[in-house]
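Curious: why these numbers?
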Amino acid sequence: MLSIIIPTLNEEEYLPLLLKEIKKQKFTDYEIIVADAGSTDQTVAIAQEFGCRVVKGGATVAESRNAGGQAARGDLLLFTDADNFSWPDDFLQNLITEFKKRNLDVASFPIYPQGNFLDKIIYTLYNFWVNLTQNFSAWATNSVLVKKEIFEKVGGFDKTIIIAEDHYFARQAAKLGHFGFIKTKPILTSARRLERDGRLKTYIRYLLTALYMVLLRRPLRKRFLKYEFGYNHLKKKKQ
């Protein structure tokens, strides 16, 4: 069984869109776990309405992902963000089929933003890079598919990492198994962080983080980059 794990905090806008997309999939051997970090809007009610299991999340996205992973009953875990709101037809079936066909243990797949032309160019280049380097360097988008046994051996997502904990998790998991980038039709995600923080600042931040990880061979735990850790960006949005 597949466990789909969605960390949330005040996601009443995007969560129903995502859950409708999941429910439209022909693949049905799954459970949906919403790891909620204390939403004050209708997020939990929406999750329950769609038949999701709701578990208590944490102060960071990593902690919520871990809570969902620990509660999961499936042997495969799909971690995805609540604002990945548009999925291709037969996405889950194609994803799982390719994952098993290639004997993968951890994988990621293309994500594209609901943004402007520049966003699409940058994400296209990034997806191309992840695909090109997948045999010797594991990078991820904001969604990761992993065997539960690998998730447990890695110890989940590192909550002490300031940014790119998903990339670091993929790298750690790849040390224990086979990583792959699955070329599905891309999922559409929101551009809310790009629009809120500014595209130039955000892309420079992403580039510096990648260089830090490549050159120093360790994740970013020090705050030399201004970045909203955990769910602060969502909290500010509701204020």
Notes: Residues 225-234 have pLDDT under 50 and may be disordered. The CA atoms of residues 5 and 79 lie 5 Å apart. The radius of gyration is 17 Å. The domain at 2-238 is CATH 3.90.550.10 (Spore Coat Polysaccharide Biosynthesis Protein SpsA; Chain A).
